[in-house]
Amino acid sequence: MKLLSHSLALTATLGSLLVNAYPLLQPRLLSAQPVAAGFSDPNSDPFYAAPSNISAYKKGDIVRSRATTSTFKDNKNLDHSYQVMMRSENTQNQAIGGVATILVPKKIADGAPKILSYQNFEDAVSLSCSPSWAYVDTSNSTAKLAANIEAPFYVNWAIEQGYYVVIPDQEGPANSFIAGRTEGKIILDGIRAIIGNEKLQNSQVALFGYSGGAHAAVWATELHEEYAPEVPIIGAVHGGTPIDPEHLLNFLNGGAFSGFAGAGLIGVMSQHPDLKKFVYDHLTPEGAALLEKAVQPNVCIGEIVTQFAFVDYFKYVNISNPLQDPIAQKTLKEETLLKSKASYQISVPKFPRLIYHALGDEVVPFNDSQQYVKDQCAGGANIQFVTLPLAEHVTGEAEGIPMAVDYLGQLFKGTQPKVACGTAPGLFNTGDQSKVAAVMGSDLASKYAQVRNQPAKVQGAHGMQPSKDGKSAAPANNLAQAKSSAVSLVQGLLGL
Ligand SMILES: *[C@@H]1O[C@H](CO)[C@@H](O)[C@H](O)[C@H]1NC(C)=O
Ligand SMILES: *[C@@H]1O[C@H](CO)[C@@H](O)[C@H](O)[C@H]1NC(C)=O
Ligand SMILES: *[C@@H]1O[C@H](CO)[C@@H](O)[C@H](O)[C@H]1NC(C)=O
Ligand SMILES: *[C@@H]1O[C@H](CO)[C@@H](O)[C@H](O)[C@H]1NC(C)=O
Fold first, then answer.
1. Is 244 a known active-site residue?
2. For a substitution probing ligand 2, which of 52, 53, 58, 63 has the most ligand atoms within 8 Å of its CB?
3. How far apart are CA 145 and CA 28, in angstroms?
4. CA nearest ligand 2 atom 10, residue
5. Ligand 4, atom 11: closest residue by C-alpha
6. What keywords appear on the UniProt entry (predicted)?
7. Is residue 314, in this structure, part of any structural domain at all?
């Protein structure tokens, strides 16, 4: 009953709050504000341009670095933060410069050095939306609000525990959203960079990501054995995980969140030149203009959601069934994590994982996650799989936070409960304030209560609003207003 009522509270609040613009806006969390002197949009910041001899570096080697003041600056246990460019690799095995943000705690946890690799969901295809830029305190990236709604829990919790944090720009220099191999390699090289630079030998690494961040994280787990077996991953947590790009495209196409499908298509094309040529060979001029709009500076998650809603991409090509074409199928079979479709051998990581998914997820298909877990379990994996019975995609992001943080803590302590693969010990009662406080401390727990009780504001941060029936999220009618409804919430989350 308790479990049921907490989830109901979360869903019932949907629809009740579409807040008008706040009188006291925190300007730096909103866009259309001048940025303070210092860093600038990655589109014009030379830090993001790889040197011509990038291939002379070893994977994970740091090419350059610079100190930053991050949005997590008020964390009392944060010592300093900095950005690095490290050598990484794209899907075609070419050397690229990857960027990551590194946060170093003051008081370091006892025992083996512990590292959280936090993957933010960028869900867009413009460098302006790179996490490294969204986590700069003075940034005016339009991604900043969305990037800082769940991150304060994971990142500030980890820093308070004395864990190191690395936040990769997993999409890389070509904005390769949903291109799994590029994302996974950049994550693994970001971890190599922090281990090398901070001299964290014999460390323990755990990964977290939700949604677009989960897609990146699951690919890092997939590529770990082949690409970076020496990276000491002890476990991973991801939720709302996209598993199969073809199903994702069909699921989203023409619907409220078709923007993510368009961004995913552009991101995947960035790593599959043959697919890109195929698409452009059949794209109408209107289709080409549409895709061009998505890659403009500061077209980030909120803009992707609101400007590309209800788009039927298949109307913009002059062939029928383009996905059945052998060129499309070749890419789709390389980019899927479904065993029944993949053209390569999917690995089965042995480290423990928590994977969760909202049953009513309207953005990422639930059934593909479930199938992935089934396949992994059949191969001998160690996975807790949690179904959030009453959540949709964004409330699922919020509802998963205490459970995910709890599991990450258990991983680092080596105390995560062993369950039969694919099952779960039970739902975390997120309404139980003392239980949440036991996981993340009383300060973060009271901040969590604000997030839990204001789902419409959480949706607002993503450029969304509650749907008419209150059961799911919808693209915001007014992006600026939706975002401004969330500013004071996010500002409060970051202040410690
Ligand atoms: C950010 O600030 C810069 C410099 O003041 C300005 O050129 C740019 O348009 C701003 N971007 C946004 C999205 O407000
Ligand atoms: C790459 O080139 C720069 C500038 O010439 C040089 O300082 C650096 O040592 C080179 N890196 C490697 C790994 O060769
Ligand atoms: C499809 O569109 C492309 C690009 O606009 C054009 O070059 C091509 O001739 C068209 N093909 C057909 C069969 O209409
Ligand atoms: C999941 O559902 C979608 C339709 O919503 C379907 O296309 C896909 O085949 C299903 N996936 C699995 C693994 O059954």
1. no
2. 53
3. 9
4. 53
5. 368
6. Hydrolase, Lipid degradation, Lipid metabolism, Secreted, Signal
7. yes
Asked whether residue 138 is domain-assigned, the answer is: yes
Q: How many CA atoms lie within 13 A of 109 on its CB side?
A: 21
361 is catalytic: yes
**Domain residue limits at 301:** 2-436
**Does residue 357 belong to any structural domain of this protein?**
yes
- pLDDT tens-digit map of 164-222: 999 999 999 999 999 999 999 999 999 999 999 999 999 999 999 999 999 999 999 99
Given CA atoms 357, 358, 360, 362 in this order, what sign does their dihedral have?
Answer: negative
Coil vs helix vs strand at 358: strand
Taking the CA of residue 370 as reference, the ligand 4 atom at the shortest distance is 13
Predicted confidence (pLDDT) at residue 20 exceeds the cutoff of 80: no
Cβ atoms of 430 and 395 closer than 8 Å: no
Question: What is the whole-number distance in angstroms between the Cα of residue 281 and the centre of ligand 3?
Answer: 7
Domain of 170: which CATH number?
Answer: 3.40.50.1820
CA of 168 relative to ligand 4 center, distance in Å: 30
In the reported structure, the alpha carbon of residue 319 is separated from the centroid of ligand 3 by a whole-number distance in angstroms of 9
pLDDT digits (tens, 9 = 90+) for 249-264: 999 999 999 999 999 9
Query: Among the listed ranges 26-30, 86-90, 212-216, 266-270, which one has the minimum average pLDDT value?
Result: 26-30
CA distance 173 to 120: 16
Separation between Cα atoms, residue 423 and residue 105, nearest integer Å:
35
How many degrees, rounded to 5, is the angle at CA 451 between CA 153 and CA 434? 70
In single-letter form, the type of residue at position 99 comes to: V
Q: What is the dihedral of CA 179, 182, 185, 187, to 10 degrees?
A: -70
- Whether 313 shows a pLDDT value over 80: the answer reads yes
Supply φ then ψ for residue 386, to 5 degrees.
-110, 125
Catalytic residue among 7, 128, 211, 484: 211
Give 244 Cα–ligand 4 centroid separation in angstroms: 9
211 carries an active-site annotation: yes
Catalytic residue among 393, 406, 472, 484, which?
Answer: 393
H helix or E strand, kind and range, residue 399: helix 393-413
- The reported pTM is 0.94
